[in-house]
């Protein structure tokens, strides 16, 4: 998939039709930004991962037009912000400096 990014829109359409039929709904339209996110994604799981992404997005969208937020993907442009500092939490080692070391007794 990484080497054949031009195939992503065709595969997305195929999986949208397939899962749409299974769910009893028309395949949704995909916005250009959503498709761009998919084409930029690195796909460590290859085509099976794309299939799972499309299926999950269809379930979440409930028939709406597909937007990037339906995909829940991390790309180079949208890094995860799950660091302890970003969540307002402190790292367990914060404040440890200056305390005496307690080794085995």
From TrEMBL:
Keywords: ATP-binding, DNA-binding, Nucleotide-binding, Transcription, Transcription regulation. SUPFAM superfamilies: P-loop containing nucleoside triphosphate hydrolases. GO terms for biological process: regulation of DNA-templated transcription. Residues 63-105 are annotated as: Disordered. Residues 1-59 form the Sigma-54 factor interaction domain. InterPro entries: AAA_lid_NorR (IPR058031), P-loop_NTPase (IPR027417), Sigma_54_int (IPR002078), Sigma_54_int_dom_CS (IPR025944). It holds the Pfam family AAA_lid_14. One of its GO terms (molecular function) is DNA binding. The keyword Secreted does not apply. This is Sigma-54 factor interaction domain-containing protein. It comes from marine metagenome.
